[in-house]
Each structure stands twice: as structure tokens, then as C-alpha cells.
Amino acid sequence: MKNIKLKLFARLIFLFFMVTYTACEDYLDVVPDNIATIDNAFTNRTMAEKFLFTCYSYMPRHADPESQAFLACDEFWVPYPQLPIYFYSTVFEYIARGNQNVSEPALNYWDGSKSMFVALRDCNTFLEKIDKVPGIYQYERDRWIAEVKFLKAYYHYWLLRMYGPIPLIRENLPVSSGIEEVQVKREPVDDCFDYIVSLLNEAIPDLPLKLQNEVTETGRATQPVVLSVKAKILVEAASPLFNGNTDYASFIRKADGVQYFNQTFDNNKWEKAAIACKNAIDTCHLAGFHLYEYLPNISENLVPEILTQMSIRNSVADNNYNYNKEVVWMNPNSTSDWLQRLSTATLNPANMQNEATRSLLAPPLRIAEMFYTKNGVPIDEDAEWEITGKYVERYKTQKATEVDKFHIKEGTVTAVLNFDREIRFYANLGFDGGLWYGIGKFDVDDQWDIQGKQGQAAGKRLLTNYSTTGYYCKKLAHYQNVILPGAGAGYQVVDYPWPVMRLADLYLLYAEALNEAQGPSEEVYSYIDRVRDRAGLEPVEIAWPKYAKASRKDKHTTKEGFRSIIQQERLIELANEGHRYWEIRRWKRAKEIWHNQPVQGWDIDQDETAAYYRVRTLFTRSFNIKDYLWPIREYNLSVNPNLDQNPGW
Fold first, then answer.
1. Residues of 440-461 as b/e, b for ≥16 C-beta within 10 angstroms?
2. At 642, is the secondary structure helix, strand, or coil?
3. CA distances (Å), 198 to each of 66, 145, 146, 431, 574, in order?
């Protein structure tokens, strides 16, 4: 038995090294006979810098539907089962549709091709070896070490957010390690958060406030980046999923009975998160970051409604490093090209055979209902919508008039739900009868009008490339994209690095943390109001008393009421950017929002208005407590008996 275990251990060590160095072969192929070694990777400055970039290469592909959680919840829905071969999605099939499993988990970052533990091993190798490399100035060495500590913290956080308690890879184990040392244990979530934050704290002093060259260094860690990520992580640590979560009272480490999840809510965690958010905001301001405002070209004669739309759309899509100072951290290794093609409606009826606009990522009806009315309050809380019956009749239709002409084609009949909404609704979503500025049309009086009924340009014409809900994601598509002339000629995309952290996100995190720590205050209001002001909305403390129905007018004055406002504001402002799934999880609202809840859209198989605007249920979701945490692949449990599976799996 002992010989069998030793053979298994030797095999695991060999496979671990093979996986590690195969992932890095482009950077480590530095010796004449093409056999890469660690010693060669740290012989001089150039080789060491390549290894630094190898550590960055493990960054998750934030803009990839198969690497992120875009398709894990109800933010987008896609045709099923007739998904095209080029877009078969295990994330959608396994997670959104409730088929996650322990044999081959979807979105598996524990092991396999996406393993964050391989990334952590390389980060540790860099930190072990960098001090011995000749020819590096000390300030540069210090910066590189700080960058890798940041990456090490972020990769741990990525795992922690998904799996809960994880093994902490503080340093690499030597090859001579025994079986007991290799069979690592998971650590309590509080210890994991503390370790991650300690790495970030170590990194901050040796990082620059700004990048010297935005073009060549985009995506590298700076003080604003690290402080913003620290703020986000501390907000996560303070949130209900990780702070006093009694659902996991019986989740203990079987080896020694250690409790994985703290069982007592600690409000001090919100205090720490609020301080971290404010520090990050102050540093971002010092570095020149500010909310994005669109400056039109001299040839554009834009009305305020479209100017606001463009500020919202371009806060994500503007790839001008010198101008878009809202994006605190972007990932240049994960760009938007594919997401844009999957999101854009077919806009030109004369070019209906253009196969490059896929229209596949379809926001469901629930996302359309999430946005505020033009008064800046939820549609079910707006007094005007209640008195006029508009909320009750939101699925009926009405004709657009001149008042609507900048958002809906005049004379078009579309759903009541699409009228009199806040500008972020029109900046985020396209819909049948709606207008789409840009992509070749830059006259506000001559925008693309979306024709979304069955057989029309943006409607269901093919077996797969269509919006299954009747809504399209306008926000992700760059306004300067080009529909090339001629049938099937193509769609030319202006690519942009994916925005991982925007300043608006940080403002709303601060408002949330401060409200949870101390309750509503002028300081709390001021940061949510900055985001609302950019969206063309009145401040919270004016909008609710002025526009909300009687029972909701003082909603903003209590911690619980303002919590609801902040959460909806975050879901609106960050819509379609991959945040929704993680936000709803950390708030522990997933069962409330998703369990036994229908995913709905319009009846897109219809070509007549009355029939098209019937609500159609596409799927009824389920969500249970076990779904809050990812399963660990059962193979790993058989190899390492010290690992405990997550509850319910």
C-alpha cells in the first residue's frame, strides 16, 4: 500500500509540473534545445520579465462567456437546444439550466485548463527567484514583486468567491514533500480573506500611482487598481454570503472540526470595507479618474438624451486610454470582440444576410423591468405608473409619438414597458421599435430602428442567430462598429479591453458599505447620486419623495430601504457587464430571485404586433443553497482525502 501511495505521489508531482510548464511554454522556451527550465527563466532581466507576464497570463478571461458568469444566471438567455456549434455553452447548459455536477463541473477553476492553483504556483516561483536575477534596478524589482503579490491575491480571491474555503498557497512545496504535506486542507473563509488582504497591503506601497505608458502597460497593477480590488474584496467579506452565514453551521473541516464559515455577523467588517472604499476612491481621484462624459465629434449634433446614452455606453466601450478615465482596471488579454458580435442586433434590413451580427445574448424581460422609470424609481414604485395603470398594463402596447422620437421610432407600436424609462434602459437595451444610435448612423433624426418581429432583419429568421427574448444588448456594442456592405460581408468591430473595475462600481460599493456600517447619510447619498446624475436622474433624496407611491416615499431613509435602492442601482449601472451573478450570490438573494422564477421574453415567433407582445416563458429556474458554492471535482477528493466537498454536492 505504501508503494502504491508513493507511486501516486510521484505521478501527481510529475503531472503538476507538466501542466504548470506547458501553460507557460511561450515564455519559458529560452534555451537552445527548447527545453525550458526555471533556472533559465531567471538568468537575466529579459527572461524574468517574461515570467512576470506569464503570471499575468493566468488572468481570467473576463469578457469570455465561457470563462465568466455571463450565462450563469438570468442576465442573458440564448436559444436552446438549437445553440450553434460555434457557441455551445457548458456554463449556460450546466449552471443556468441547473445541470451543474461533480464529475466535470462547468466553469472549473480548481483544476484542469483554467486552474488557478497552477497560476499560484508560478506566482510563488517568481517571488522565490526574482531576488537572484542580475541587472534589475531595485525600484523595478520591488514593483514586479508587488505586481505578483497582487496577482497572487487576486487568483486566491477568484477561487474564494467561487468555492468558499480554499487551501492557501502561501509558498510552493518542495519536490521532496511527503504525502501528508501535499494533501493540503481548505482554510476558513475569514482566514482566506485576511491572507488575501495582507498580500494586497504588502503590494500597494511599491506600485505606481499611474502607468508610465498606457498603451504598453495597460492592465498592469497600480495603486488605484489594487486599492479598488481590496475594497471590492472587503465588501465581499462583509456581505451575507460570508458574514455570519448560518446556512453553513454544519460545514466543518472533517480533519479537525474547524468551522469553515463564521456564524456571527460582524458589522465591523462593513466599517473596514467602507474605509477601504473611501481610500480607493481618494487614490483614484488623485490619479485622475472620473466618471465618463461623452464629448461628441464636431459633426455630431446630439440632443441631451443621446449625449447621456453615449456617456453610459462609452463608459464601458471607449477604448481611448487617454480619455476614458472611468475604467480603473481593464484586462487587455480579454477583449470585447466576441461579446459584441453576440450582442448586436441585425440593424440593416438591406443587409439581412450579414452573419457576423449574432443577436444571441438576449436580456430577458426581467432585466428590462429592472431599470427605473424616467423619474428614477422602480416601475412598481412609481406613483404615476400606479395611478395611470401603466404598471399593470406594461405588457400591452402603445404607439410612439414625437415625445419618444429619440428612443423609439415615431409611429411604431411597441410594449408599454418600453416607454418613459430612464436613459440607462435605452443605453443598455435594444428592442423591437427602439432606436440604435451609431454603427454607421450618426444623425439623431435618422437612427437605426430595430425590426425585431419574426422574419424581419433583427427578428427570428434563422435557426440560431436571433434574440430569444426580443431584447438586445446595445451597451456592449461600440458605436463606431461598421456593418460592411453586401450580403454576408461582415461586421467590423472596434475592440476594447474588458473593464474589470469602473469608478462607478467603486462609488456604489462605498455607498453600500457605508449604509451597512452606519445607515443612510448625506455621505452615502452623495456617492449614489454621482452615478445617478451621470444617468440624467435626480438625487435619491429628491426622487423617492417626489415620484414614489405613498408607501415608498420614505424608503431611502432606513438602512433596509436604502439597501434595496443601492442593490438595484448596482444591478442597473453594471448591467450586462458580468457582475449580476456574483452580486446576487454575495447578497444571499439568489434563492429569492431565481428559485422557481420564470425566464421570460416576448413571443418572437410572431410577425404581428398583437401576437408578438405576448409574454412567453422560456424556462423556470431553480436555485438551492448548494448552488451558492461551486462543487469540487470528485476526482480531487479521491486524490486528496483532506479536501471536504461543498455542502449539497
1. ebbebeebbbbbbbbebbbbbe
2. coil
3. 31, 14, 12, 47, 28
Number of H helices, E strands in the chain: 25, 12
Q: How many CB atoms lie within 10 A of CB 576?
A: 21
Q: Please determine, for residue 24, whether its predicted confidence score (pLDDT) is greater than 60.
A: no
Domains of the chain, first to last: 304-500 (no CATH), 501-617 (1.25.40)
Indicate the SS3 state at residue 393. Answer: coil
Write b or e for each residue in 342-378: b if 16 or more Cβ atoms lie within 10 A of its Cβ, otherwise e: bbbbbbbeebbebebbbbbbbbbbbbbbbbbbbbbbb
Residue the block writes with cell 446614452: 309
Q: How far apart are CA 539 and CA 569, in angstroms?
A: 12
| Structural contact between residues 643 and 185, judged by C-beta atoms closer than 8 angstroms | yes
Quickly tell me which residue has 532581466 as its cell: 45
Q: Is the dihedral of CA 477, 480, 484, 490 positive or negative?
A: negative
Coil, strand or helix at 270: helix
Alpha-carbon gap, residue 252 to 255, rounded angstroms: 9
Cα separation, 162 vs 146, in Å, equals 25
Question: What are the CA-CA distances from residue 328 to residues 56, 151, 294, 322, 324 (Å)?
Answer: 17, 16, 17, 12, 9
Instruction: State the chain's mean pLDDT as an integer.
Output: 92
Give the closest residue to 202 by CA, choosing from 239, 230, 231, 169.
230
Residues in Cβ contact with 69 at an 8 Å cutoff, skipping those fewer than 6 apart: 91, 95, 107, 578, 581, 582
Q: Does residue 396 contact residue 383 with C-beta atoms inside 8 Å? A: no
Q: pLDDT tens across 166-209, in order?
A: 999 999 988 888 888 888 999 999 999 999 999 999 999 999 99
Bridge partners (DSSP) listed for residue 598: 620
Q: How far apart are CA 203 and CA 224, in angstroms?
A: 12
Give pTM, 2 decimals.
0.93
What is the enclosing helix (H) or strand (E) of 203?
A: helix 189-203
Nearest to 470 by CA among 79, 95, 83, 93: 79
